[in-house]
Design a protein that fits this description.
Blueprint (H helix, E strand, L loop, with lengths): L4 E9 H14 L3 E2 L4 H4 L3 H19 L3 H24 L7 H9 L2 E9 L9 E6 L2 E9 L11 E4 L6 H51 L2 E3 L4 E9 L3 H11 L2 E5 L15 H4 L2 H7 L10 H16 L2 H15 L12 H18 L1 E2 L2 E2 L23 E2 L2 E2 H29 L5 H23 L3 H21 L7 H24 L2 H25 L5 H42 L15
Antiparallel strand pairs: 1-8, 1-9, 2-8, 3-5, 3-6, 4-5, 7-8, 10-11, 12-13
């Protein structure tokens, strides 16, 4: 949910302005309204402060000055070059480069060649090595020998500067230099990192201060300073106490629609886990609803259906727990251990209901207790089917219908709250038509309602909905224009809703694909194991099954993240009318 805010307007005498800002920053509860970026970001002093902050951020991220980083990179490049040269020199065996120079002085020339092993002939030179279908050979001649190798299917190579052993020795020496460079970087970090962090914090505070002062209007030839801010109602008492002591003029009011009111989310521990997903799309406006309480549980369910395996769910739960406890360090998942655990637990439960454990169909396994199968989805319908369709496919479509109806309900309620009922009649008309029609159909099939009752109920729902959709969709406008707009809206709804509902089949398809791939790896491993297993076949079985399930889990997680996110960001947010263009509450403070 979104925390209620209070809007404050401050009018301060210019000599009291900076001390008052210090008091506000010390309290740290007021989000001060800033002018549009184009009006303040071009300020020269602010630009210098932003550049200084960027430099500090970059220095903190790379962990050392450019000179030390470049020195280490140069040594690493030289090591890589020496190791590559060692590989190239290995085909020539052990030799002394100085002896080659002595042979050259004595009148002998060594030329180095390579060619296809099938094409090589003994008379061409002395073969020293054969590697990857190529023969490497040396031709020895005196300086007067002008033998032409251009007509032969060979490639002349540059004479090696050093032997493999010499190159490796050089690489080892460079490793010593690399260790010394790393030691210098670590020493610099030990001496400077905390100071850099302190400077960065001070730079951020300086930037905040400048933005606040640039957003303050000067009145009465600079004698008075006027600015606005917002404070959460749970911090209102603290702010009012400080203002009473400061003896400054201020006005307090509720925000209006036109205000750029920041938002502060206030959710329980479970919903808070999914707030980063909301932030990926965009934070809600102050007058919008917070989508996270719906987005979180729905994303969890969709993710679990896409994983579709309780074994994989257990693995995710364990990984999330290790990340949460700091025992497993993965930079990209830093701070996400809690949500990974939640997704793992959900996948475990849903995977069990789907009857799959590491690709094994436990619903059909004779060794699995029958009592434990009673709650599985395969018990729905007849032999896991509803009519001619798989129960999981039907379930995915039902989830899609419910999800979209929920979105439309939220849209109707939130739009009515924001714009009034008369401006949202069309939205309520569509909701009545869809929900009323579905409910009537369900009641008719469940309780065998008379045909005449069903007919007149649907006619009544259709008539009331049509008035809202075609006649009263825009109050005060020409009725004919309203009818035309209603027809266009009907076309968009008819085509859009069908496509939106069908999009939810991906929940069924991804879960099915993951289960089938897991089963395929199990089958492949079983074939390698054979009927008379031994140590070798057991090792092969373990390697195939482990590699297969790890690969399948990674692919399943990727699909289970992307596709539910799409269903939430496209199908759900579109039908809920969610904009997501809000700004987070960021109080003016020293933190």
């Amino acid at each position: 949910m979104i925390t209620q805010m209070k809007k404050y307007t401050f009018l301060v005498f210019h000599r009291d302005y900076e001390p008052f800002l210090e008091q506000l920053r010390e309290l740290g509860v007021v989000h001060i309204t800033q002018k549009a970026a184009g009006l303040i970001e071009d300020d020269e002093n602010l630009q210098k402060a932003l550049q200084h902050e960027d430099e500090l951020r970059r220095l903190l991220k790379q962990g050392a000055p450019d000179q030390l980083i470049a020195e280490r990179a140069n040594i690493q490049e030289r090591i890589a070059a020496a190791q590559e040269a060692a590989k190239e020199a290995a085909v020539w065996g052990e030799f002394d480069a100085e002896r080659i120079k002595e042979l050259s002085k004595a009148g002998y020339t060594l030329r180095f060649f390579s060619c296809s092993s099938k094409a090589f002939r003994d008379g061409w030179g002395i073969a020293l090595a054969e590697k990857e279908g190529k023969t490497y050979f040396v031709a020895v001649s005196d300086h007067s020998d002008n033998s032409d190798y251009s007509e032969l299917p060979v490639s002349e190579l540059p004479a090696p500067e050093k032997s493999e052993a010499q190159w490796l020795q050089e690489a080892e020496q460079l490793n010593g230099l690399l260790a010394a460079a790393n030691a210098r970087i670590e020493a610099w970090q030990l001496a400077n990192i905390e100071n850099i962090k302190a400077q960065l914090k001070e730079a951020r505070q300086n930037i905040d201060w400048q933005r606040v002062t640039l957003s303050t209007d000067k009145l009465a030839e600079g004698a008075l300073c006027l600015f606005e801010g917002f404070c959460p109602i749970d911090k209102e008492a603290e702010l009012n106490a400080m203002l009473a002591a400061a003896e400054v003029y201020y006005e307090e009011a509720d925000p209006v629609k036109e205000d750029a009111t920041p938002i502060k989310l206030h959710n329980n521990w479970f919903v808070k886990l999914f707030e980063p997903l909301t932030g990926m799309y965009g934070w809600p406006n102050y007058n919008e609803f917070d989508p996270t309480p719906i987005l979180g549980p729905c994303f969890l369910l969709f993710f679990a259906l896409c994983i579709g395996d309780c074994g994989y769910g257990l693995m995710l739960t364990l990984i999330g727990y290790l990340i949460y406890k700091g025992k497993l360090k993965i930079e990209m998942f830093d701070g996400l251990g809690g949500i990974i655990m939640a997704l793992g637990v959900g996948s475990t439960v849903v995977g069990y209901l789907m009857g799959t454990f590491f690709g094994v169909d436990i619903y059909r396994a004779e060794w699995f207790p029958e009592s434990a199968k009673a709650v599985m989805f395969n018990n729905l319908g007849v032999n896991g089917k509803i009519g001619e369709y798989d129960v999981m496919m039907v379930l995915a479509l039902v989830i899609g219908v419910v999800h979209i109806i929920l979105a439309m309900t939220i849209k109707a309620v939130s739009y009515t709250k924001r714009d009034g009922f008369k401006n949202t009649v069309s939205t309520w008309g569509w909701l009545l038509l869809i929900v009323g029609g579905i409910c009537t159909a369900i009641l008719a099939m469940t309780f065998s309602l008379p045909t005449e009752t069903v007919k007149w109920t649907l006619i009544g729902i259709g008539a009331v909905s049509a008035l809202g959709i075609f006649v009263f969709n825009t109050p005060g406008r020409n009725p004919l224009i309203n009818v035309g707009a209603g027809l266009w809206d009907t076309y968009q709804m008819a085509t859009g809703l069908l496509g939106d509902v069908l999009s939810y089949i991906r929940l069924y398809a991804l879960g099915l694909a993951g289960g089938m791939l897991g089963a395929a790896f199990n089958q492949l491993g079983t074939q390698v194991l054979g009927e008379n297993p031994n140590v070798g076949t057991w090792i092969g079985f373990i390697l195939i099954v482990t590699f297969g399930h790890v690969l399948n889990l990674l692919m399943a997680c990727l699909g289970a993240f992307v596709h539910p996110l799409r269903l939430s960001f496209v199908e759900y947010f579109k039908n809920a009318g969610y904009e997501g263009s809000g700004k987070l509450y960021q109080p003016f403070s020293k933190s």
